């Protein structure tokens, strides 16, 4: 059950409130919502991640007809799938009919699957030149890649200096050490739970953290300038044979933005994509409101309670990075998946950081940068993006919320600050 357990461990970063139906259940029936406003979440409030539920995906709800502000009838439905970026993805749409919904949902799902394969640095796919292909071959000679992969790499490299080096897709060698440790820790926990239920007393080698020597050795091969991109030929070359790419800090958000643009080009006008902490709203709610309300999940809530909610205008993104999604615990210490390039260890100052800006790729990248940055560094990064309308909300380890002025003006806390 490793796949299911890993999916559950991903958690959910954000949920959309007030104006969207609940996620579909595995039997196709809509889930009831006891709260005053209905909600949609990327991972936990949708189908339970059992093997049976996963086998039945993609799922859609029954669909309902709702009245728009001018009395126009809109077909409203939610599609859910788990085929991309190791997270539950939901597509909420208001369309003229069921056929149109199905067309947009199919476009959304197939594009997420395609980009997942393209940005994957742990698995290769037949006929696809992806990040893993580059990690294996790009040091030998320049490798031609698809536009969507080249543009994501160029975007990441262009933003490296502006984030003060906090987000470096060339840190793959270091990130792999932590990834392998996390996977081993999760596997050990699953085996321990299995052994406990079956009275198995098999002993296993203890899980250990990456050594300082191994981390420092890996850090010698993370120079972003060793990633050579040729915009005319669309080729990628590694000047350092030990360079490894890992685009986990940006790939899902970048993919979400690409897909949102394709949906809008195809005529989609009202709805959202919720991809495990990445929410991209398209257009405005059909009931006449100027904004959507997006809830930010409490980092320490087992029930996905929200710690705050914020207003989000049309065609805007909200992305959360946190220590409660991909993490493991060892000897009572929590180790998140976001690695500080200075210490080479997981960042610990915050439990979650949420970024609101138009571009989902930028929001994803910056949520990681602000998760790592000190308050002084954060101000410098904000200055570098002063024309991008970037707003940020930080939740520290004591669950205290702090936000930039623009975000603070649009945020309602679930509970008063202590």
How would you describe the overall organization of this protein?
By secondary structure, this protein is an alpha+beta fold. It has helices at 2-10, 51-56, 98-119, 131-137, 147-158, 172-198, 212-218, 251-265, 360-372, 375-384, 405-410, and strands at residues 14-17, 39-41, 59-60, 64-67, 73-84, 87-95, 143-144, 227-230, 235-238, 271-275, 278-282, 291-297, 306-313, 317-322, 327-330, 333-336, 350-357, 391-396, 401-403, 411-413. Strands 3, 4, 5, 6, 10, 11, 14, 17, 18 and 19 form a 10-stranded antiparallel sheet that branches. Strands 2-1-12-13-20 form a 5-stranded antiparallel sheet. A 3-stranded antiparallel sheet has the order 7-9-8, with helices on one face.
Number of extended strands: 20
Largest sheet: 10 strands, antiparallel
- Structural class given helices, strands, pairing? alpha+beta
Q: What is the overall pLDDT average?
A: 85
Radius of gyration using CA atoms only: 21 Å
Number of helices: 11
Beta-strand content estimate: 15-25%
- Overall geometry comes to globular
Low-pLDDT ranges: 1-48
Helical fraction equals: 25-40%
How far the N terminus sits from the C terminus, by CA atoms, comes to 40 Å
Assembly level: single chain
């Amino acid at each position: 059950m490793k796949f299911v357990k890993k999916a559950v461990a991903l958690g959910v970063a954000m949920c959309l409130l007030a104006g969207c139906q609940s996620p579909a259940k595995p039997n196709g029936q809509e889930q009831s919502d006891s709260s005053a406003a209905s909600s949609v979440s990327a991972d936990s409030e949708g189908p339970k991640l059992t093997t049976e539920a996963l086998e039945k995906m993609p799922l859609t709800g029954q669909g309902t007809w709702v009245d728009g502000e001018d009395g126009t009838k809109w077909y409203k439905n939610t599609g859910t799938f788990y085929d991309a970026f190791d997270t539950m993805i939901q597509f909420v749409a208001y369309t003229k009919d069921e056929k149109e919904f199905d067309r947009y949902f199919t476009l959304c799902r197939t594009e997420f699957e395609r980009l997942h394969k393209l940005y994957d640095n742990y698995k290769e796919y037949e006929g696809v030149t992806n990040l893993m292909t580059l990690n294996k071959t790009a040091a030998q000679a320049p490798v031609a890649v698809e536009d969507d992969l080249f543009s994501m790499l160029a975007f990441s490299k262009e933003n490296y200096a502006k984030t003060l080096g906090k987000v470096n897709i060339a840190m793959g060698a270091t990130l792999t050490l932590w990834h392998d440790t996390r996977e081993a820790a999760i596997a050990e926990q699953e085996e321990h739970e299995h052994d406990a239920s079956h009275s198995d007393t098999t002993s296993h080698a203890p899980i250990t953290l990456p050594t300082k020597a191994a981390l420092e050795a890996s850090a010698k091969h993370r120079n972003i300038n060793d990633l050579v991109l040729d915009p005319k030929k669309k080729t990628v070359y590694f000047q350092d044979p030990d360079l490894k790419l890992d685009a986990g800090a940006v790939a899902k958000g970048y993919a979400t933005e690409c897909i949102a643009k394709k949906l809008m080009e195809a005529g989609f006008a009202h709805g959202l994509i919720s991809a495990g902490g990445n929410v991209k709203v398209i257009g405005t709610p059909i009931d006449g409101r100027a904004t959507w309300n997006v809830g930010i999940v409490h980092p320490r809530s087992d029930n996905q309670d929200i710690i705050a909610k914020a207003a989000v205008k049309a065609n805007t993104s909200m992305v959360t990075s946190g220590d409660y999604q991909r993490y493991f615990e060892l000897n009572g210490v929590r180790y998140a998946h976001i690695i500080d390039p200075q210490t080479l260890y997981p960042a610990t100052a915050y439990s979650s950081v949420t970024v609101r800006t138009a571009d989902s790729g930028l929001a994803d990248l910056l949520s990681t940068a602000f998760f790592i940055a000190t308050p002084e560094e954060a101000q410098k990064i904000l200055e570098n993006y002063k024309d991008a309308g970037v707003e940020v909300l930080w939740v520290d380890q004591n669950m205290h919320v702090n936000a930039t002025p623009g975000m603070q003006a649009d945020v309602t806390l679930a509970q008063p600050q202590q």
